[in-house]
């Protein structure tokens, strides 16, 4: 599809660089409108209206982070995904809320490691919760991300295939402030593990 601002210019440049222009010139660039077809758009972004997720009827806005997880699935009141190994596996957008309303983030989760990737002894791994605000977005204007620095809370995780509750103490962080509008969550440095999340909530 053409770019909204520059039409087919980018594709034309690539074609001119790697292909030989025919004597009769390039074929006409076609758009759905020229062919009488509807223009397909992405569905509107879902902004979860609350600060808790029960997963009683679906994923409630959580989706996979590129290169962080395989497809996120919902079944029997929980979401499930397999990690790729990056810091953040899933992400969501929420209706903005004031960080000072809450001081903790709690969830019930089960992590089943892949024996071929470890650990098989139940050694603790780190969970990470990263948040963005209206003034400090996770993806900066220059398209970079500070993965481990500001606006990140961590908690220990036991990848033993059993259900556990985990707690992030946000009150202790000086950067837990502003109006939160996005969240990234993940299991650090554990590839090919199966993660099931029963519920999550701010407290």
Structure characterization notes:
The chain is mainly β and 203 residues long. Helix content is 5%, strand content 35%. The chain is built from one helix and twelve strands; from the N terminus they run αββββββββββββ. Strands 1, 3, 6, 8, 9 and 11 form a six-stranded mixed beta sheet that branches. A hairpin with a 2-residue loop joins strand 4 (73-75) and strand 5 (78-82). The longest helix is centred in the N-terminal third of the chain and has 10 residues, at 9-18. The model has no long low-confidence stretch (mean pLDDT 88).
Name the poorly predicted regions.
none
Task: Estimate what percentage of residues fall within beta strands.
Answer: 35-45%
Q: Could you give a short account of the major beta sheet?
A: 6 strands, mixed
Helix content: under 10%
**Number of helical segments with 4 or more residues:** 1
- What is the mean predicted local confidence, pLDDT? 88
β-strand number? 12
The structure class reads: mainly beta
Rg on CA atoms, Å: 21 Å
What is the approximate shape? Answer: elongated
Instruction: State the assembly state of the protein chains.
Output: single chain
Q: Return the string of H and E elements.
A: HEEEEEEEEEEEE
Spatial gap, N to C terminus: 44 Å
Keywords:
203 residues, mainly beta, 6-stranded mixed sheet, 6-stranded antiparallel sheet, 1 helix, 5% helix, elongated
Question: Could you outline the blueprint of secondary structure elements for this entry?
Answer:
Blueprint lengths: L8 H10 L28 E2 L3 E2 L9 E2 L8 E3 L2 E5 L7 E9 L5 E9 L12 E9 L18 E6 L5 E7 L9 E9 L6 E9 L1
Parallel strand pairs: 1-6
Antiparallel strand pairs: 2-12, 3-6, 4-5, 5-12, 6-11, 7-10, 7-12, 8-9, 8-11
């Amino acid at each position: 599809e053409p770019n909204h601002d520059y039409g087919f210019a980018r594709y034309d440049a690539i074609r001119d660089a790697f292909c030989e222009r025919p004597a009769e010139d390039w074929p006409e660039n076609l758009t759905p409108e020229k062919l009488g077809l509807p223009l397909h758009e992405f569905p509107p972004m879902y902004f979860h209206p609350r600060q808790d997720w029960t997963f009683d009827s679906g994923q409630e806005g959580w989706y996979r982070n590129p290169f962080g997880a395989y497809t996120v699935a919902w079944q029997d009141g929980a979401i499930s995904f397999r990690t790729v190994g990056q810091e953040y596996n899933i992400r969501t957008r929420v209706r903005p809320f004031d960080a000072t309303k809450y001081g903790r983030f709690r969830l019930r989760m089960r992590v089943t490691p892949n024996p071929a990737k470890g650990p098989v002894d139940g050694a603790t791994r780190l969970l990470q919760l990263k948040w963005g605000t209206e003034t400090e977005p996770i993806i900066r204007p220059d398209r970079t991300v500070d993965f481990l620095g500001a606006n990140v809370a961590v908690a220990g995780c036991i990848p033993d295939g059993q259900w556990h509750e985990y707690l992030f103490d946000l009150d202790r962080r000086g950067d837990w402030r502003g109006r939160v509008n996005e969240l990234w969550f993940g299991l650090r440095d554990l590839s090919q593990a199966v993660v099931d999340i029963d519920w999550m909530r701010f407290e």
